[in-house]
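Fold in tokens:
===
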Amino acid sequence: MKALRSQHGFSLVEVTLALGIVSFTLLAVVGLLPVGLKSIKSATEQAAAANTLTSLAEGLRHAQTTNGSEYGFLFAGETIRFTPGSAPPGVTTWTNLDLGGSSNAGSRRIAARMEILETPASDGSAPGRASVSVAWSANTGLGFDESNRRWSNADGQMVSGVQFFVGKNP
């Protein structure tokens, strides 16, 4: 009787099955990449919008006076001014913002709108109220539709109400 030699290694069937499993797994991972990249891009846009919204609200809350009656703060290179106890200054809108390069990723556009609805009392006894909104889009034509009170051509938007005082820290 002939002695059987022990064989080491894998058969062709085992190697083919292993390659099939590895190929299937790699295809699944590669297929999920676009979904993951889209999620990262969306999160980046939302973070930029949230930072812009926070910056506007904090600027309004920390407005400084230079002459004792008129208050103002700087945002995107523009000074927003208001006088406590007087009529609100109206609406300020910014389009194609580039806040230190963080809000415009590639061809993305970010826009902001602030409307001071009511100025605070000059003695600091009553707060002022403002509406702040931010939107972003990859398309041109991003703008605010006054009739619907919404952003048009926006991929996403955020809105916040802001109360603010002058002359004291509540």
